[in-house]
Amino acid sequence: MKNRRNALKKAAALLETAGCSDARLDAEWLLAEVAGLSRLALLLDLDAPLSEQEAARFSDYTARRAAGFLASGRRPSSRVQ
Question: Where are the alpha helices (DSSP H) in 1-81?
């Protein structure tokens, strides 16, 4: 099982490759949504594990966010879910 810190690193790299200028921030907001936490609460506990369901949902959100950048240059985070 992976933890939040590793998931954020991987997601930020994917978003940066897709052209997102705020890749780490976007990844943090998406993971906070998946975890049901505020961004601050997420950042205070980055070593917490992700469940398989959370990891799958986060991966899906991240992929859709990246696809939005590749297709049109920008997809608002609120439209990813």
Answer: 4-18, 23-35, 39-44, 52-72
Sign of CA dihedral 17, 23, 28, 34: negative
Distances (CA, A) of 28 to 4, 7, 54: 9, 10, 14
- 2 φ/ψ sector (left φ>0, alpha ψ -120 to 50, else beta): beta
What pTM does this model have? 0.84
Q: Is the dihedral of CA 45, 47, 50, 56 positive or negative?
A: positive
Query: What would the pLDDT profile of 6-25 be if each residue is shown by its tens digit?
Result: 999 999 999 999 888 899 99
Count of other CB atoms within 10 angstroms of residue 63: 15
